[in-house]
Amino acid sequence: MENKTSIKIFEQNQVRSLWVEEEEKWYFSIIDVIKVLTKSERPRKYWSDLKIKLKKEGSELSEKIGQLKMPAEDGKMRKTDIADTEQLFRLIQSVPSPKSEPFKLWIAKVAKERIDEIEDPEIGIDRLMETYLKKGYSKEWINQRLKSIEVRKELTDEWDNSGVKKGQEYAILTDEITKAWSGLSVKNYKKHKDLKKENLRDNIYPIRYLQFK
Q1: What is the largest CA-CA distance in the chain?
Q2: Which phi and psi (to 5°) does residue 97 adopt?
Q3: Residue 82 — φ and ψ, nearest 5°?
Q4: What is the pLDDT of residues 99-156, one digit of tens each?
Q5: Distances from the Cα of 139 to the Cα of 8, 122, 160, 202, angstroms
Q6: What pTM does this model have?
Q7: DSSP letter at 4?
Q8: Distance between CA atoms of residues 135 and 126, nearest Å
Q9: How far apart are the C-alpha atoms of 158 and 165, rounded to whole Å?
Q10: Residue 63: strand pairing partners
Q11: Residue range 66-111, pLDDT digits in tens
Q12: Cβ proximity of 173 and 164 under 8 Å
């Protein structure tokens, strides 16, 4: 398992993070996040008390928290409690701090947008186009990308009708398609493009996927 360690800066405060290649996930040091949000001189004690509080409230968050080795202040690699992005947002919601309020407001906004999209899928398409435009993609690229999404949906519907199961079997077929036009597996192509959480199909010209329909 290949891990890459880095330091994220949040308002001039360091938050240790770790990219786990095998899982394609970022993990963040909970102690560092607690320290940034609360300015506590004893973030470990704060986190210990918070875990007890969460457990009493019936939350399973603390039970799902794992540990990974990250560089400590003495320069040595030591185990520390870590959270992935989803767990981190859940944690932030549990911390009463002015610094956590912007995150809470953002989470609430995203939740509302998601509900709106479920009620009216066209809203999601409009928002997707707006997002791509803000990222600097051309309207031609966006139209091709939306078409490729439609084509892939038709393809996965065919897979479903043929009894292909989501998850590993989907991944195998997607790998084969990617190998056909690039000569590389999805994982290796993402390494080639130096991508992490970014969507692979956002980083190729969409016409490649249209060719397989």
Answers
A1: 58
A2: -155, 140
A3: -130, 160
A4: 888 778 877 887 788 888 888 888 888 888 888 888 888 888 888 878 877 777 777 7
A5: 33, 17, 31, 14
A6: 0.57
A7: E
A8: 14
A9: 11
A10: none
A11: 999 988 888 889 999 999 988 988 888 888 888 888 778 877 887 7
A12: yes
